[in-house]
Amino acid sequence: MKGCYTNEKIYLFLSFTINTVTTVAAPKSFSEGFYYAKDLNIMENVKYCVENISPSYDGYIIIFDDQQRTQQAVRLEHNSQKHILLPIKYNYKVVIIGQGEITFST
Known about the structure:
The chain is an all-beta fold and 106 residues long. The chain has strands at 29-30, 33-36, 49-52, 59-64, 70-76, 83-84, 93-98, 102-105. Helix content is 0%, strand content 33%.
């Protein structure tokens, strides 16, 4: 009995694709308005930096304590450098004025 052989060849191609996804938390920007520190998702008693990422509009940030006393006021020109803020508490009020886009970072 003769074996049955064919000229067909089987090719096995293994393709491994490694997809790496780099996740970078984009800083959330805030526009003109009244906020409590907790609304800005910042931690209490931590020094944050603030900057204006708007390419053409200035912004202002004013921070009031729970006694409505001004704790800090900063003018942020468009594409500003980072400015260090004093530590903020959750019950502090933050006022952003102008058309700038303000971001917070540590």
